[in-house]
Amino acid sequence: MKNIVLFGPPGSGKGTQAQNLVDKYDWVQLSTGDMFRFNIKNETELGQLAKTYMDKGHLVPDEVTTQMLKEEVIKNKDAKGLIFDGYPRTTAQAEALDGLLKEVLGREVDICLSLMVEDELLVERILERGKTSGRVDDASEEIIRNRIKEYYKKTDEVSQHYRSQEKWIEIDGVGEIEEITNRLVEEIEKL
């Protein structure tokens, strides 16, 4: 089993690229965004709590996100591989993921692939997505810029966590979708 963290700011294409890797390798994508949407749609306690943060453009607290994720890892413990999309976003989450994987699977993160995209392109992509997503936090440029700022502020330390383990790889996230997928596959094939 491979455990891949797909990293990058909002609008960097993590979800699309994760799905391409799922299709190629028959792995399971664990997307915090999907988990949040499911829990919000079904009005779970965790979902309602997450929504109050998301609507303001803030990151959801670690303990809420980690609990949602743990339930998904347990459900998918027999998968060929797991792709973590949107998690971890803080050092505390990275450490929680390390512990969770050891506890549930007896394994660790194999590699962290970080999609690199300039801020102005991120804003443009998210505003475009907002035309159809129905998400409040995709429709306001101010909220989008705040999300990007929060992302950088809180996640720079995560890159240090994985760099110290020699697992951090930066991937150019600009170009045709297939080109970006090929860049990711090239790094995965080195494992």
Features:
kinase; five-stranded parallel sheet; single chain; 14% strand; ATP binding; globular; 59% helix; 191 residues; alpha/beta; 8 helices; 5 strands; nucleotide-binding; Rossmann fold
Describe the structure.
The chain is an alpha/beta fold and 191 residues long. It has a single domain (2-181), classed as P-loop containing nucleotide triphosphate hydrolases (Rossmann fold, 3-Layer(aba) Sandwich). The chain is built from 8 helices and 5 strands. It has helices spanning 14-25, 32-41, 45-54, 62-75, 91-105, 119-133, 141-164, 177-188; strands at residues 2-7, 28-31, 81-85, 111-116, 168-172. Strands 2-3-1-4-5 form a 5-stranded parallel β-sheet, sandwiched between helices.
List the SSEs and their pairings.
Layout: E1 2-7, H1 14-25, E2 28-31, H2 32-41, H3 45-54, H4 62-75, E3 81-85, H5 91-105, E4 111-116, H6 119-133, H7 141-164, E5 168-172, H8 177-188
Parallel strand pairs: 1-3, 1-4, 2-3, 4-5
